[in-house]
Amino acid sequence: MSVFRRGPAHPNTGAILLVFAVVAALFFAREILIPLAFALTLSFLLTPAVTFLEKLHMGRVVPVILTVLISMAAGGWITWIIANQLVDVASQLPTYRQNIHAKIETLRNRGKGPLGRAADSAKDIGRELTSPDAPAIPSTAQSQKQRNAPRAPAPPVSVQIVQTHTSGLADLPDLLTPFLAPLAVRG
Fold first, then answer.
1. Are 130 and 139 in contact (CB under 8 A)?
2. Torsion angle of alpha carbons 128, 130, 134, 137, nearest 10°?
3. pLDDT at residue 140 greater than cutoff 60
4. Backbone CA torsion sign across 101, 104, 109, 111
5. Region 12-41: what's the mean pLDDT?
6. What pTM did the predictor assign?
7. What does the DSSP 8-state code read for residue 58?
């Protein structure tokens, strides 16, 4: 009897090494495998069109050539549309830049234009929500006066944090329910 054992130290070592070898092979062969996968996917997509044209008694070569030409034309047309859209966006970039700059300036100069009024309204709503003695619905004349009048700071609200003392066992059902619920359904 030999004291030394032959073979891997762990029973799953061979499987782990095999997984690493497969991943490494796929990584280094990606320049070949990616185009091959794309070609297989494209052939699965175009096979129904070729089969339909074959049923029209055109043979095998003519439907394949026709399908390839139509798919290349469709790809070229989509590429042309995307390129035109990119050129259009690139030519209008100065206009977009000026528009964005104008909107930023409008936000900086509050009170001018609709964005400034919207920002002021949002701030007024925030102040009304935080003040404890705010009126329910102010009138427009009253809101104009409130907007122009300086506001006094609201008194601070006292907050008291109360902790309930529970034992760890009281929280146990809440912690175990998500794990035990699937078992209850199976049983």
1. no
2. 40
3. no
4. positive
5. 90
6. 0.39
7. -
62's tokens: 């003519």
Residue 171 CA neighbour count, 13 Å, CB half: 6
Give residue-wise pLDDT tens across range 86-113. Answer: 999 888 887 788 787 877 777 676 556 6
Query: pLDDT (tens digit, 9 = 90+) per residue, 5-16?
Result: 565 566 788 888
151 secondary structure, DSSP code: P
Token pair 């096979």 is at which residue?
A: 47
Per residue in 126-136, pLDDT tens? 788 777 665 55
Q: Which letter does DSSP use for residue 9 in this model? A: S
Over the range 105-144, which residues count as b (16 or more CB within 10 Å of their CB) and which as e?
eeeeeeeeeeeeeeeeeeeeeeeeeeeeeeeeeeeeeeee
CA angle (24, 26, 29) in 5-degree steps:
105
**90 vs 18, 78, 79, 99, 139, CA distance in Å?**
50, 18, 16, 15, 48
Which residue blocks in 29-171 are alpha helix, DSSP H? 30-55, 61-91, 93-108, 113-130, 140-148
The residue type found at 128 is E
Q: Can you tell me which residue has the tokens 């494209």?
A: 42
Distance, in Å, from the CA atom of 141 to the CA atom of 138, rounded to the nearest integer, reads: 8
